[in-house]
Amino acid sequence: MIKNLKKKWGITSNTQLAVIFIVFAITGSASAKLAAPVLEFFGVQPSDFVEVPLGRVIYTLLRILIIFPIYQILLIVVATIFFQFKFFWEFEKKFLSRMGLKFLFEKKNKD
Q: Is residue 80 part of a domain?
């Protein structure tokens, strides 16, 4: 399994693979932890949804939606700290392109 992953990602070093896993772990944990303060910054509190039908579900969905952009930004920041910017930048471009956001990375031609 590890060999297949290294081949798929174009990695030869087990150390680099370990660093990549560490970057994913830190980014995932940090983005989940930062979601609540970011929602609070925008004035969204869990208590706002107490009287709303399915309020807890709606708040959870909002947290998940806010985690996505936080994760994308943090992934590049944490990757840069661990000297893995190139790998994760390519990873982000591929991931976001598959989500239909390819236009973010296309170069504009000036005619």
A: yes
